Amino acid sequence: MSSQRHEELMVLESLRAHRKKHREQALQLKSTDHLQIATPRLTLGQHVSDLVARTVGSWRFIIIQSILIVIWMVGNTHFGNQAWDPYPFILLNLILSFQAAYTAPAILMSQNRQEARDRRRAELDYQINLKAELEIRHIQEKLDYLLTKQWQRLSEMQHMQMELMQNKSHI
User: Fold this and answer.
1) What is the DSSP letter of 89?
2) Quick one: which H or E segment has residue 33?
3) pLDDT at residue 36 greater than cutoff 60
4) How far is residue 113's CA from residue 49's CA, in Å, rounded to a whole number?
5) In 3-state terms, what secondary structure has residue 3?
6) How far apart are CA 24 and CA 31, in angstroms?
7) Is this model's pTM higher than 0.70 or not?
8) What angle do CA 137, 150, 141 make, to 5 degrees?
9) What does the mean pLDDT of the chain come to?
10) What pLDDT is stored for residue 4 in this prediction?
C-alpha cells in the first residue's frame, strides 16, 4: 500500500515539476513577447504614412474637408465670372484628385504594416493556445493515471474488507 501511495506522490510531484517548467517558459515568452510584436523603429516615410492614415481616417478630417469644399463651391458660385475656379470647379477636382493619389498609397502602406503586426500576434496566439492544449492534455493524462490508481486502491481495499469479513464469519 505504501508503494502505491509513493507512486501517487511521485506522479503529483512530476505534475508539479511539469507545471513549474511550463510556467517559467510562459513567463519568458511573456517577457519577450512585446519585443517580437513591437514595431521596429519607423522610417520617416512610415511615420508619415501612419500620420496620414490616422488623419484622413478621422471624422474631424471629413468634417473640415466637407466645410472647405462647401466654402470653395459657394465662394466660386457667388463671384460668378470673376471666380478663381468657376463651375464645374476643375481646380477643386484637380486638388481632390491630387489628395486621393497621395493619401491612398500612404493608407495602404500603413494598413500593410498593421496587417503584418496582426499576423504575428495571431501566430503567437496560436503557439500559446497549442501549448495550453498540450498542457491540458498532459494534466488529463496525469488525472486519468491517478484515477486509475485510486480505483485499484479502492478495489484492493474492498477485497481486503471482503477477506476480513469472510475470516470473521468463519470464527
Assistant:
1) T
2) helix 2-37
3) no
4) 10
5) helix
6) 11
7) no
8) 10
9) 86
10) 67
